[in-house]
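Dear colleague,

Thank you for sharing your sequence with our group. We've completed the structure prediction you requested, and as agreed, I am returning the results in plain text so they can be pasted directly into your records. Please verify that the sequence below matches your submission; if there's any discrepancy, let me know and we will rerun it promptly.
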Amino acid sequence: MSTVLITGANRGLGLEFTKQYLKDGWKVFACCRNPFNAKELNELTKQFPDQLAIEGLDVSNHRLIDSLANDLNGTPIEIDVLINNSGVMGDKQNFGEIDYCEWEEVLRINTFAPVKITEALIKNLEKGKQKKVINITSKMGSISDNTSGGHYLYRSSKVALNMVTKSLSVDLKNKNITVVAIHPGWVVTDMGGPNALINANKSVSSIKDLINKLSLEDSGKFLSYDGKEIEW
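Please find the predicted structure tokens below.
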């Protein structure tokens, strides 16, 4: 049985990833801040009691990341695919109204956490068969694509995530670990809003197909959910 660990798994894309991987027969470690309040995840445990493990994790708290890693390293448990999905938009985004404390929090969640989690779970990834790290980024992190300005908090956090993805791809190549940044499209979620272009089912099913096709040669790429490469 293949194994995936997903952060931000209680709603939106993370929840959809969880549902689809469970249906595919995978073992899923679904991470979220408040497992007891994750109603849909807990309902899924009734359908998939042997496949789904819900883990409490606030990705902004490095101590909790280390604690999760210690629990998973007891065996250690193999992780085939790590999906760093947790992310926040931030509120005061535009010039003249920026909240710098909030900016630090956005960076902590969107940029620092994926690196910290990958570091903490490296032994588990090394034992996995697929050895893939997927950082969910955004086209808003493309410098080439930025023609509208604004969104300083979110854009900068995703640009930084793209850069650390590239560095991870170089640093982990000798371990045969593939690391890519994937833009999921503009998706109808709490973050994407009701006017987005595609639904979570379409985005996630496309990303899963893409993940399945990835090889070490793709490591370090910035890709759209449909497999197209995005300009940095």
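Summary note from our side: The chain has a mean pLDDT of 95.

Kind regards,
the structure core
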